[in-house]
Records
---
Amino acid sequence: MILGDRDLKYYIEKKRIVIEPFDNEIIRENGVDLRLGSQVARLRRTSMTLDSSHPPEDLSPYYSIEESDEILIAPGEVVLLTSLEYLRLPEDIMAFVELRSSFARLGLLMPPTIIDAGFEGNVTLEVHGSAFPVLLRRGQRFAHIIFARTLSPVESPYRGRYQGQRGVTLPRLRLPGEPGKTFSNPPGDKPTM
């Protein structure tokens, strides 16, 4: 069942779905708009191969992270952005994240993202640049979340590598034979909310 605006207001009021910071303006007919945070991770163009089955501890040759209230996305550039909102979902609510159509009409692309039941954290958004530079600003309504209620609470709520993430979060790749060890942000780059 997709949650409409009345359902969302009820779930948010009862703190079953937590969205911080919250503003009534982000509730839409059948979902919630996510606003942009101020952090961006830019994928660097490099000829260095990243072996995903043997990831390096330091991802800085592949990404740069910056903080700004204005984010310029160059043509064809791939960036990771973060939501301003920090979400907490119960064990019977999951969500679909899509780019708002106004930004898709500018030529920006964002692969669809699933937020699993039980997830908590900022949402990291992968965005592909347009045919021309596009300037984004912190606080803009950029993505749209559609919440769906599962028929029953999930047996295994999300407790994965991205649980509790704050700010833009790089891929957390696991090293073979080290199930608990992951690598993500370059040393010294500590995402903040």
---
Amino acid sequence: MFRMHIGSITEQGLNLDQREDSAVLPLLSAVTGDGIIHFTRPVHVRIHATLSGQTVLIHGTAESEVRMPCSRCLEPFNMKVGTDFSATAVPENPAMIDPVTGDDIELTSNHMDVIAYSGDDIDLGGEIAQQIIMALPFKPLCRDACKGLCSRCGADLNKTACQCQPQDKSGPFAVLKTIAFTKEHE
């Protein structure tokens, strides 16, 4: 698992270079559960962490390779995915003072965009999995020039030309092309 021991962070920081199979990250296992996306390489993470009091500042990269279908032609292809990321880890439930009432306010990780930790270890697995998921394209393309499938016969236009006749361009608004406008002179 992607874990960091806080006691290992020196004044110069801590550098981690680690590879793990995607199956050890529950979020990535959920993404691959339907069988459409497969991770073909382990998730590779490089992290630099620095300590500021009890707050840990984390900067890193996460990358892997996935096999997924093209959104145009449906052919599976391999694609590298990766991202640079930054995160902040703070002790779970840090207390703050409400400036109006002077009362303590207890914050949870749901209130802040941070990784909450307790004890001496920080679990980075959830954050890394989220970063990889966000790096996946919404409409993956096997190549920019992918021609896709014929909308009528389903032929893969990258491999063959289909025999379908050109579609009639008439539609409900085609009659507008026949309207002749005349200039009226005043």
